[in-house]
């Protein structure tokens, strides 16, 4: 627990430094935010077009899908703002031998990696996501009580845990193979399975998305929490997120022993 | 209590390295499907003991195993075999606790945030090492005074000269008052003034606080200026481990007689001497004192050559080290 608190403090320090750095290069910050907003908005627009030009998604009407897209934008914003720099950071430091620096600090190196991912430039998706989400809630006159907010927040926390698990796996591969340029793209494409309602997938894939690869935690569970239509699978998905993170950390610790550094 | 701050026994580190025999595209493509690996022994049964409060030089040719040894001692790498005890810790198994007690400066790597003033990285380190405000302020004042970097720490790191940046790297590595500091080529690329400032800083901290320093370098003037003891590593093992004076008198049975002539000398006149270097107006003559009397040889030089000036020296320390590297 003490270690976790130390890491949270470290994360907050890194946030402060990243904000200070963003302010040093204001134009880069503004441009990065605008471009981030443009890119992250293209996904929901595309899905809106798909929805309106096809038979839509089974079990979801247009208003619900707009809420789903708002949550997707919001969660993506949270993920990329907190961990946005991670894949670049780990690839860069391992290739250049700077990973040594992390091992000289009195923290778990994975803790430092995860605490170093904050990127203010990625705030672009978070704000419109929150706006669309609130707008949808008001428009649909949804009842939002303590239970809904609790499940929503728990889903965000377990979703971040799952994402950290993926970052740990990614880092493990980088530690072993050093240079693997397109791996992050591959990972992000795979993670996109979590950007659609689970109901559109086959039964097998649906089961996988709430168990072994519990991507349902990112958007499906928060959306269903706000729409007040949760079922017994929620705690199962949460448990699998914890399991995934735990296994990823074990793999990371094994790979760390094989770290060879760079020549002197 | 163990009098040694570092106690290493039988340290081994073997790397598995991908080997490509031929250059060119075909060979690169072949390596995509099938690769040959070779085992490279970077450290081979190394034993090392270092006393508390020492400034120990660790030198050796490129690829000798110095950096690998330092990386194992600082907890970065796992060894393949061997025992290491540093202040009661095994670096790679107790890394998180252990690194609170060490500082590391890499001459070719930086731990400062490039776009921000060094003072921001210092503040981050205060957080990481849990340094109290009082200790932080005292140490920062001490280092600022010693290194004369009062104004430097408030400028963005990217605007600093290499010398100024290195001074900040030292502060960063030592704010938490570690009793042991590893310095990996700390003066590389620095001008003579900055080198002197860094060396003087190391000596002051060693004297004032009893901090132990392990210095790896290719600059022998660092070793001569800073270290009482020196360990030479070659092919992954210690081949010389003694005080620097022993290194200076390593070839005690050999002397170099440095002679300056008052006119140009015909090379035929020098045929009876073992001339190791020189020109028309000077010569460095080596003699073996076990077989030749120094007095007789000097008399012979005065008799045969037009001497303007003469000096008798030990074999140059660089020559000694070169000899040890090549042995």
From TrEMBL, chain A:
It comes from the Bacteria. The chain crosses the membrane at residues 29-51, 71-90, 110-135, 204-221, 233-252. The keyword Nucleotide-binding does not apply. Pfam families: ABC2_membrane_6 (PF06182). PANTHER family: INTEGRAL MEMBRANE TRANSPORT PROTEIN, SLR0610 PROTEIN-RELATED. This is ABC-2 family transporter protein. It comes from Ruminiclostridium hungatei. InterPro entries: ABC-2_transporter-like (IPR010390). The keyword Transmembrane helix applies. Keywords: Membrane, Transmembrane, Transmembrane helix.
From TrEMBL, chain B:
One of its GO terms (molecular function) is ATP binding. Residues 27-260 form the ABC transporter domain. The keyword Nucleotidyltransferase does not apply. InterPro entries: AAA+_ATPase (IPR003593), ABC_transporter-like_ATP-bd (IPR003439), ABC_transporter_ATP-binding (IPR050763), P-loop_NTPase (IPR027417). Keywords: ATP-binding, Nucleotide-binding, Transport. It holds the Pfam family ABC_tran. The keyword Transport applies. PANTHER family: ABC TRANSPORTER ATP-BINDING PROTEIN, ABC-TRANSPORT PROTEIN, ATP-BINDING COMPONENT. This is Putative ABC transporter ATP-binding protein YbhF. It comes from Ruminiclostridium hungatei. The gene is ybhF_3.
